[in-house]
Specification:
The chain is mostly helical. About 65% of the residues lie in helices and about 0% in strands. The protein has one domain. Helix 3 runs antiparallel to helix 4, helix 4 packs antiparallel against helix 7 and helix 5 runs antiparallel to helix 6.
C-alpha cells in the first residue's frame, strides 16, 4: 500500500504544481504518469538495494530468486522512465500493465500465507488481502497514464484526434 500512497501523493503534488503554473502537468494522464513514474523509481530502487526484503515473497518454484528480484526492480525503473519518454509511453504503459498482472499471483500467495514476514511490511493478514483489489487499479493506472485507454466513457486522445481529422 506504500506503492499506492506514493502514486497518490506524487499525483496530488503534480496537480498542485499544475495549479501553480508548472508546465507539462495540464492533464490527468500527465499527473498520473508523474505519480506512477516516481513510485516505480522508488520501489524499483528498493528492489535493487534491498533485494533480501523481497525474497520471502517469491514461491520456492521461482528459479534464481535473487536475480528475479533484481530484474523486477529494473523492470519497474525502466517502466517508470518509459512513461516519461513520449515515444515509449504507450509501450511502457502496456508492459507495466502486463507486469502488474504477472506479479499478482505472488500477491495472492502472500495473502494466503498471511504475509511472508517481510521486513518493513505489516505482518497482519488483512494488509495482504487489502492489497489484492488494488492490483487491477495499478493495471488501469498504467494504461491510463500512458494514454492507452481513456477515462470510462470519454474518447481517447488518439480517437478524438482521428475524428477531428475526418
Amino acid at each position: 500500500m506504500l506503492f499506492l500512497a506514493l502514486i497518490s501523493v506524487v499525483t496530488l503534488a503534480a496537480t498542485l504544481a499544475n495549479r501553480l503554473g508548472a508546465p507539462g502537468l495540464a492533464d490527468g494522464p500527465a499527473r498520473m504518469r508523474a505519480g506512477l513514474a516516481v513510485a516505480l523509481a522508488v520501489v524499483g530502487a528498493d528492489h535493487l538495494f534491498s533485494p533480501w526484503r523481497y525474497l520471502p515473497m517469491l514461491p520456492e518454484i521461482v528459479p534464481f530468486p535473487h536475480a528475479t528480484v533484481l530484474f523486477t526492480g529494473l523492470c519497474e525503473i525502466a517502466g517508470g522512465i518509459g512513461l516519461l519518454v513520449p515515444r515509449l509511453r504507450r509501450l511502457a504503459g502496456v508492459m507495466l500493465a502486463v507486469y502488474f498482472v504477472c506479479v499478482f499471483p505472488a500477491n495472492i500467495r502472500n495473502a494466503l500465507l498471511s504475509g511472508p514476514g517481510v521486513e518493513g511490511l505489516p505482518s497482519a493478514a488483512w494488509y495482504y488481502w487489502a492489497r489484492l483489489p488494488l492490483q487491477p487499479v495499478f493495471v488501469w493506472w498504467a494504461l491510463r497514464a500512458a494514454e492507452v485507454i481513456a477515462w470510462p466513457g470519454a474518447p481517447s486522445r488518439r480517437r478524438a484526434g482521428a475524428a477531428a481529422e475526418a
